[in-house]
Amino acid sequence: MVSLDAHSLSARELNQAIKKAALTGSQITILNPQARHNIAVGILDSCKIDIDGSVGYYAASLMDGPEVNIDGNAGWALGENLMSGKIVLTKDAGASVAASMRGGDIVVGGNAGARAGISMKGGTLLIGGNAGFLTGFMMQKGRIVVCGDVGDAVGDSMYEGVIYVGGDIGSLGADAKIIEPSETDLIELWGLLEQSGINDRPRFRKIVSQKKLYHFDNLERLEMSAV
Amino acid sequence: MCGISGIMYKNSRHQGLAPVGNDLVRMLDSLAHRGHDSTGYTIVGENNDGQLILRIWTGESEHPDVILARAQEAVEQVGCVVNSRQAWGGFLRLNLNYEGEIPELAEAILQTEGVVIHSIGEASEVIKDVGTASDMEPRHQVGSLKGTHGIGHVRMATESKVDITHSHPFWAYPFTDVTVVHNGQLTNYHKLKRHYEDVGGYRFLTDNDSELIAVYLADKLAQGDSLTDALRYSLEELDGTFTYLVSTKDGIGVAKDRWAAKPLVTMETDDVVAVASEEIALRSVFTDQELDRAEPQENEVLTWSV
To answer: Are strands B293-294 and B149-155 parallel, antiparallel or unpaired?
Structure first.
């Protein structure tokens, strides 16, 4: 068990201390994060990290393996490019949570800002509350589950992957469509909610790509004359 | 990137002025990583028994005292009675009694070569300088200023040059008490500026896009729109990316663009409301672990009044 006081360390010193402790698989507690940026970035060994308070931008980003619990809010880009492991945030996340994540799980207990799961390439992003504008923008793989409402342009230009929404949908983004979730989908989702301690079982709708943007459907002028 | 913050003590008109300057210095210092170029504040105090607060700067002049004396002369010639005067390092703060029209006073000051007006207000004053909040504090002692509310800005310049004139907040010439801090860029700045110059007859003091927001809002308020409505109209009429704060004599307002491109978090209790680009700034003043903050979303407008 290692306890680190963020107040007396620079972000670099703090992350170096976390990396050192992570080598031995320790349980690490970070005190006084005070919403500072770049906390627990680049941790590549399995370990358990508890952060006692809010974090700023890029918290728990570029990570492969750790399990991180954050008791507070997060700024923009929590868990960016997560490869594997798990991040659990008790309150709200800023914009671009789970940007480009490739694997693992991110759970936001409260609401998420705009562009949640932007360019996601794998893993699961679960949001207990609402998510903002452009949720799942250009996502390429993976699963986003929003128990509450989503804002406008959900799933805009998504290639692959799925977005489930339990509440209201502001509007669909370009090339996104709503389909009925299968029974297997719902069993999986409810299992996920149960694991995450979420008691509601909303009537989820499933959003996927229409895949119409995969190919140009307008011909250039020269091409037209050739047809 | 830039950083913005604001604070308002809801009951301060009844319970006495609050440490608005000190709070904003701490908030902007904690946001210094969002911009080192310049820092600026609007501090709004009580109504000044009808007196005006004038803040001017002498640019890069080698003889600031001479220019400040000329500016003061110009002010007195249009009928102002100077009640108090503070001058330091090319900056001048005057407390005035003035019965005339604000445009006449402003024009008289601008006739003095080398003078830049930072603000004219019945209750508001703009303090700005290059560098971070910590850098400018020994020169300006913003931390000692009390008020009901205020806004502030740290700048990482993108649209116009780095100097004091192009620092935020921007005062809406020639109105009183409307100032703006802005994080973002306006893409229809030139078009709207021409419109306000040609049709509205307004004059702009800088070539910074954010000044336009102040003039835009002051014009709407002068036409009788509420602050909330003026902010709502701006969501449609201003093009580009923005999260901005406006300060008036009576309160502060927030508007966030349709893309939710620029950050903001808000915190509100029964006594105080604080807003900032990042939670780190709220936590520099409010250390409560359980601090509840919200993040305004796209097309959102918020206003608070004292």
So the answer is: unpaired
Please tell me the distance from the alpha carbon of residue A194 to that of residue A147, in angstroms, as a whole number. Answer: 13
All residues at 6 or more sequence positions from B160 whose CB lies less than 8 Å from its CB, including other chains: B166, B206, B207, B208, B209
Edge-first strand order for the sheet with B272-276 is B124-130, B38-44, B149-155, B2-9, B272-276, B265-268, B293-294
Q: Helix, strand, coil: what percent of chain A each, to 5?
A: 15, 30, 55
From chain B, the residues in CB contact with A151 under 8 A are 297-298
Q: Is B2 a catalytic residue?
A: yes
Taking the domains of chain A in order of start, what are their residue ranges?
A: 92-226
- Cβ neighbours of A66 (radius 10 Å): 24
Write the ipTM: 0.91
Q: In CATH, what is the architecture of B51-121? A: 2-Layer Sandwich (3.30)
> Does domain B2-47+133-305 bear CATH number 3.30.230.10?
no
- The string of pLDDT tens digits covering residues B179-224 is 999 999 999 999 999 999 999 899 999 999 999 999 999 999 999 9
Q: Which two tokens stand for residue A172?
A: 């669909």
Domain boundaries, chain B: 2-47+133-305, 51-121
Nearest chain A residue to B286 by CA distance is A34
Q: Which of B1, B2, B304, B305 is catalytic?
A: B2
Residues of chain A contacting B278 with CB distance shorter than 8 Å: 35, 56-57, 75
